[in-house]
Amino acid sequence: MALIDSYNFKGQKAIIRVDFNVPLDKQTFAVTDDTRIRGALPTIKKILADGGSVILMSHLGRPKGVEEKYSLKHIISCLTAHIGREVKFADDCAGTSAEKMAADLKAGEVLLLENLRYYAEEEGKPRLPETATDEEKKAAKADIKEKQKAFTKKLASYADCYVNDAFGTAHRAHASTALIAEYFPGKSMFGYLIEAELKAMDKVLTQAEKPFTAIMGGAKVSDKILLIENLLNRVDNLIIGGGMTYTFIKAQGGQIGKSLCEQDKLDLALEILKKAEAKGVKIYLPVDAINADAFDANANTNTSKTNETPDGWMGLDIADESIKIFSNVIENSKTILWNGPMGVFEMDKFAKGTTEVAKAVARATSKGAYSLVGGGDSVAAVNKNKLADQISYVSTGGGAMLEYMEGKELPGIKAIRG
Ligand SMILES: Nc1ncnc2c1ncn2[C@@H]1O[C@H](COP(=O)(O)OP(=O)(O)O)[C@@H](O)[C@H]1O
Ligand SMILES: O=C(OP(=O)(O)O)[C@H](O)COP(=O)(O)O
């Protein structure tokens, strides 16, 4: 694996693709969770300590052009505080000012480029009005590929070597995550964050100590189906919670009231249960739930068996008996993978199940289990409960982690690994 440890950056300009797609306060634009920024620091510091200079490039959000609210200028003060030195800012990642600032950059200096996605070239997809004709679409598609090449070449021209440390974006085949590597033969490498992420995921996928328990939650089965299928070949226990529970319960003939259900995935749910049985994987579905009469933080609530949800009510969290069963399985595991909350944890009334699962994972970890948590919402739940330092590894990737764990090759990884 091409890693930065074996590289001396003295006198080198390194362009680093980081994932600074961080949440910002809607009013003040202050960074509300700096996990991804902190995650990139070891790489930045190593390069500066070697006597190199650093050019940071990232996207923020999904802008459709220049949109002030997605400017990376909002993260400068947070980044400066973490790096402990001035961060210069180029307000157009592919403009002449960026070119000049990169050329003038001295050893020990840091330059941050404005949001890469202000340019359609980054993603390589044309941005056309809805009214565009098929012919216009076809022409724009061909055109953007050429423009993307020029854009990539421009970014590459700023530096002597390329480091990819944007794990959260490694599943995107974009200019800065994948295409740029070819401009740095023998000088493209992974940063410490990507290295750590790959190590954590590979440990769980290939060297899991048993019993291995996966905890899957979140809203929909359809989002997690490929991961569940891949995990059935590896885990001993599969705990299912969150909204996806109800597709499984309904498929087995249970009463689910107006709980979330993917009607077109009922057969699939039964198939998963059958496959699990054939492979000797024990599936744990919640046996009881906290129900609400509306999807609302102030809704009325009651508790019922999961398969006896009263008409007009929806299950929004797992209840005490399920928490007890799940916690027991988790605490008796040696490897734990958790992706997706157990309920609508954003609302206090429906947060207990997720909090208790987070605590059980932390307890198991303190007893020697290896735990890996990924997915924006599960990580948010871990952070909300201040348990991040009690988990073996908290991933900075949502979609990227899911795809890697599904067994897919990530473009950002392939571009460097070959
Ligand atoms: N029982 C439920 N009914 C409806 N939505 C749910 C339920 N349980 C969890 N959710 C929702 O699922 C969402 C998280 O799903 P997902 O994006 O798959 O998780 P992650 O970001 O951890 O991968 C949360 O917004 C949460 O409110
Ligand atoms: O936040 C991200 O993904 P995630 O929400 O799946 O963790 C990454 O920055 C990728 O962003 P994208 O999904 O807009 O390509």
Automatic annotation (TrEMBL):
Catalyzed chemical reaction(s): (2R)-3-phosphoglycerate + ATP = (2R)-3-phospho-glyceroyl phosphate + ADP
- GO cellular component terms, A-Z: cytosol
- GO molecular function terms here? ADP binding; ATP binding; phosphoglycerate kinase activity
GO BP of this protein:
gluconeogenesis; glycolytic process
Q: Which UniProt keywords apply?
A: ATP-binding, Cytoplasm, Glycolysis, Kinase, Nucleotide-binding, Transferase
Task: Report the locations given in the UniProt record.
Answer: Cytoplasm
Q: At which positions is (2R)-3-phosphoglycerate bound?
A: 36, 117, 172
**According to its UniProt record, where is this protein mainly located?**
cytoplasm
* E.C. number(s) listed in UniProt: 2.7.2.3
Q: In which pathway does it act?
A: Carbohydrate degradation; glycolysis; pyruvate from D-glyceraldehyde 3-phosphate: step 2/5
Q: Which family does it belong to?
A: Belongs to the phosphoglycerate kinase family.
* PANTHER family tied to this protein: PHOSPHOGLYCERATE KINASE, PHOSPHOGLYCERATE KINASE 1, CHLOROPLASTIC-RELATED
Protein name according to UniProt: Phosphoglycerate kinase
Q: Which gene encodes it?
A: pgk
